[in-house]
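Standup notes
- DV: blocked on the single-chain target, sequence here:
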Amino acid sequence: MTRTQRVPLDRMWYGGDYNPEQWPREVWDEDIRLMQRAAVTVATVAVFSWAKLEPEDGCFEFGWLDEVFERLHAAGIRVDLATATASPPSWLVRAHPEMLPVTASGTRLEFGSRQHYHPNSAVYRRHALRLVRALAERYGSHPALEAWHINNELACHVTHDYSPESAAAFRAWLRDRHGDIETLNASWGTAFWSQEYSDFDQIEPPRDTPSFKNPGQQLDFDRFMSDAWRECLRAEAELLRELTPDVPITTNFMGFFKGGDYWSWADELDFISDDEYPDPADPIAPAYAAMTRDLMRSLSGGAPWILMEQAPSAVNWRPRNAAKAAGWHRLLSLQSIARGADGIMQFQWRQSRIGAEKFHSGMLPHAGEDTRVFRETVSLGAELAGLRALVGTRCPAARVAILFDWTSWWALEQESTPASLSYLHIVFRWYHELWRRGVLVEFAKPGQALNDYDVVIAAGAVALSAEARTELARVVTRGGQLVVGYQTAVLDDSLGVLLGGYLGELQSVLGVHVEEFMPPAEPSLSGGAVPSLEISGLGAGAASEWGEVVRVHDAEVLASFVGGDLAGCPAITRRTDAAGGAGWYVATAPSALGEIASAVLEAAGIEHTLLPDQVEVVERGDHRFILNHSNVPVTVGEIEVAPRDVLIDSVLRVAV
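- DV (later): unblocked, structure below
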């Protein structure tokens, strides 16, 4: 994907969600003074302001927002203006309760929180677009307007809606997708359990059922709901482009969010932005955050993106909300910059005094400006101002890609599967080993051309189209290294089994097929011991989560299972192609996965070195970032980096 970068600010974005409507006017003066002190460049405004902007049906009140615009503009602060469509006002909900979302069990979710609407509501869409039009006509030419911010975290709380209106929209979507009812019956396998339909009007969403739901119906409903939310995004974007064609458009993604296929959503935006809240108490949070940053850069086609939300310290929605220790917020912020971000934004500017998020940290905390958090806010603003030269630059092109597929995510985690698996965990295991070795990764969409990558990893990608499988096979035949992990290419993209040993077109380049799945058992209720998995050879040691009977055609066995029912069965294989490429198959989750990753990188001629624990080294433009996420000093090459610190150099090239 090639994306045109349309973030016109020539400085780093720095700021956060600004909610002056929650505070008296005298506080606004202090906000502006402290924003200037903190070198804030952008404020996101009006995210949850629909009721304030339209207190009655069709009666708009913009006076307060006019004043906010003028104050920010006078202070040299740009405005990322939200369309305010994320939280409809009570008068609209009471007049049209049919817009409220309904769960799979039939419960209607009521007003009193946020996102109390469903995306297929014609009433919601009509009123939302009327508000968007009013905002665009009033502020579209304002000199402070930096960008449009559509809605907020689309589908965050209501990924799926089972209301009558969504049911009707689902039937229309199915007609467009399948064409006729016979095709749908074949795709869903409705001959099983006497589920045949004779008309589209008989179909309902996959509400709660006595036993397992139809897998094809579930998958299509996942796709439909993702498309429905994208249509909300598209409708607002199209109107804004009509009225304000020169103002760039974004919406805030949520990292690896299962409810929406971001590959398709990204095409609606002028630049990508993301909300990310790593848990300070989680030791793998830095690596997982890096994976998320790389996804955003991949969705951007390599172009810069914006970190739209993060917490300056603690959040308020975990069972225990750990605060960020001194330096950690800066560290994670600069990690985003290193991995392609052109700005660092927070939720929110001033910590709320009242409401559901009053204990969520802000750039300006409850205790005021004489605080560690605000001092760090000021310091980070100054540092970002000094990184102005990075704006618009890119990270080097990655030589390694990991396939990421929302269809497979939805399919792998359905019920009635061989084992309960987490798609993200499977992907993260591979990413983590590459991260530890300082290898930059991009994520790839199934079916896209993969010619630019020397290594491609497909793990857990259970449901792939023939096009996607063929493109993966080409990696080997053109001389690249293809790594296929367990539960990849087991099904087609309608969830029909690929018969004859799974893997489809990949069998020829891998030189294997799979005869039988044998995942390890879970502990019994009686507390009986569970046989552990082990492998010998490459990656020798313990293994976990998965095992299977692999039959070799013309591949080399690099590791085998030891003991138990799988004793002697191949666990890791490699088939070398005449073109010099190789297809690797990994049938389990080895504890020494890093050894396998290193072997693949060496075969591809990609330089890598195991970095000190919790350290990453990333290049962007002519800068190199050395980030130490650990609590102890580390040495990288000849450079010592303090605990929770970042070193940035525009000339130094560290030997690692």
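- Follow-up: The CA atoms of residues 132 and 224 lie 24 Å apart.
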